[in-house]
Amino acid sequence: MMLLKTSLRSFLAHKGRMALSLIAVVLSVAFVSGTLVFSNTATGTFDKLFAATSSDVSVQPPKPAEDEEQQAAVKPPTVPVALERQVAALPGVKSAVGQVLVENAVMINPATNKLVGPTTGAPTLLGNWTDTPGNPLKVTSGHTPRGPTELLLDADTVKKAKLALGDTLRVENPLGRHDFTIVGIGTFTTTNPGAALGFLDTPTAQQALLGGPAFSTVEAYGDGSRGDDRLKADALARLGGGYQVKTAAEQKADRSEQVGKGLGFMKYAMLGFAFVSAIVGAFLIVNTFSMLVAQRTREIGLLRAIGGSRRQVNRSVLVEALILGVLGSTLGVAAGLGVAVGLIKLMTAIGMDLEAADLQIGPDVFVAGYALGIVVTLVAAWFPARRASRISPMAALRDHGTPAEARANLVRTGLGLLLTAGGGAVLVLGAGAEKAATGGRYLGLGVVLTLIGFVVLGPLLASAVVRVLGALLPALFGPSGRLAQRNAMRNPRRTGATAAALMIGLALVIASAVFSSSAVTSTSAQIDKSVGADYIVSGGRTAITPEMMDAVRRTPGIDHVTTQRFFAAKVQLPDGQKAKTPLTAVPPSFFGTDFRPTVDSGAVDSLQRGSLGIGAAFAKDHGLKVGDQVTVDYGQGRTQTVPVGAVFGKGELFGDGSFVAMDTMEKVVPAAEQPPVWTFFAKASPGADVDRTLTALEDGLKEYPQLTIKDRAGYKELAQSQINTLLYLIYGLVALSITVAVLGVVNTLALSVVERTREIGLLRAIGLSRRQLRRMIRLESVVIAVFGAVLGTGLGLGWGVTAQRVLRDQGLGTLSVPTVTVAVTLVASVLIGLFAALVPAFRAGRMNVLAAIATD
């Protein structure tokens, strides 16, 4: 109890100095708890929807095989109409309803030629209206669809698309184009996750969406006499094993798994960067407690002199850290609710409607938040606590502080050099690895080793690098510059720890910038080198129809159109083993004029004579060469034996896939079994104006807003925008760790000013002006920040270059170092240093000279 009182008294005595460390803990915990609350809320919202809309038992078509999935996206699998009566006749079934529900259709407002419904994220669903407990909508305006031209639309979509009853809506899918009139509006009975729902009457839905009398599923609702598992067992026994039969719990689990995959990337990315910020915050806490321990050296000596043991001193510091951790975690969990609300608003803006009033705060939020905050704080404080407990009473009373530990410093330097050299060697191995997977493992290990090595070497590097960085300060700023340089070098361990926090954030920024710049440059170079087609047309979520391609062919200035069909194929090798490969069937114009691949061996025109073209990595992995006979399995029992005719070079724009001629594929795969076209290419006629033809192409395809039309420049911009979207996310999240690092610099300077109160008073007494004093502190801050930026830039360049080399055969063939970003980073470090010094410099300048000199 006495120990707790002492620690609490000490904590409250230094509450101002603990404030910034507290903020670091709060930020880290807030992002962890906020991410978990957001994830729980999103999952809970979908769970409610799935629970409300799931039938007791759902009878579904057999799951499509891997090689049938693309075909299933165009023509969804169905069950026969007769199945509805069979399920209804099962014991314990109160009612059975045939349901039509597809995702392969789009809704278009013909008045504006704009898509109705989400274009990313949540799907657009069309089906038949059924009056069942599982219907997610309740009719609130108009009436249900009763004829072949009537459609009911959900209220959220009506509002977003600015539609109303009586408006015309066009539905397009692979079966054709259909016009409907909006006769009803339905409101979600649960939270709408962002999907657009349109409903037709059953006969119209069957014909327009499935192509004839059939259902997507049959949903059964029990009378309460039997459980869902018993109903499922009876259905399987009566219907046989040709169908999937799922209970309400299984339906909910399947849908939740799909949602979890979509939210997983965002969740784990944010958690990852929250932990990075926690690591950065640990450096701040180490510095804070180290300086507080140094300032309380005499107090510690008195405690030891009156009988306090090393263990008690250690515990005293750790209890203070525990108080900081508990308080920071509590505030962090509370702040996490604000983070979760912000994430919900962000997701709502991009089409996923979530209710901030339905926040799901589970036990995992508190467990993760408190565990992170307390563990990080205690681990960070353990090092200063250990040093404090080792101070002898007499040395402490003389205010000599911790004795020099030459041997420990020697061990630290040796360990740091070993880790850094080892990490550098591993990065070199990763850069030279032939396989990307092997190189990726080396890269991950090298990042960890070099990061730890630089942190351990921080004090040694601080002494050397700061001396160089601060060499010009005396000449440029006189006494202020000389004092700033010496102050930054006075305690290398403290300077190293402060700069390390900034180093981590900036290293991630530089590495990400090198990777993204290389990706953009490599993609642009590949497009310039390999692409001869002038236009790329993509259907996005929907397949390309013959009408769309005909519209392109009719466009003035278009020479020809090139299609491609993708197969998830298997290749039987000469030794009898099978290997999967993405296989593309292409017409003669694909490699004739539209693409110019690099060929390692063989000839690309051999494809038109019935051979197979394969990637270099596939050839190497499976020991294939030109002339080898292989058997291609297109799926559904369609096989064909062909020779290898060409081996494409590494790093091609179209990856490491395989190719056959369209004519070759059509010999064994009937037209009805061929996969749809998702993307096709067009070439401008010789002498035609490419830009003017693009405008004509866009005008000719206005009635198909689901299509994306790009010329080569637009395709480059699209690739760059996709990379930049990820890059900006990384920058935004890294900004959190940099913010914590800035707080570390502020805290170090603030505590340093307090620690040097008497020294500052003496400097003022011998003639140093307030302006010179403030300049000294600002320059010290800038030197520390630039030191961290230099280390971060070096690490980031090493990581980014290695990442490019690891992925050189996966499309990142060109290394591009963004010198502007590097320069901006170094300039930004100066600004960070100036900003961090504002408050400490202001407080130092306001000190009373006599009071400062009298400070003990």
UniProtKB/TrEMBL annotation:
Residues 19-209, 495-698 form the MacB-like periplasmic core domain. GO terms for cellular component: plasma membrane. One of its GO terms (molecular function) is transmembrane transporter activity. InterPro entries: ABC3_permease_C (IPR003838), MacB_PCD (IPR025857), Macrolide_Exporter_MacB (IPR050250). The chain crosses the membrane at residues 268-294, 317-345, 365-385, 415-433, 445-478, 499-520, 726-754, 779-800, 820-842. It is a multi-pass membrane protein. It is found in: Cell membrane. Residues 273-393, 733-848 form the ABC3 transporter permease C-terminal domain. Its main location: membrane. Keywords: Cell membrane, Membrane, Transmembrane, Transmembrane helix. Belongs to the ABC-4 integral membrane protein family. This is ABC transporter permease.
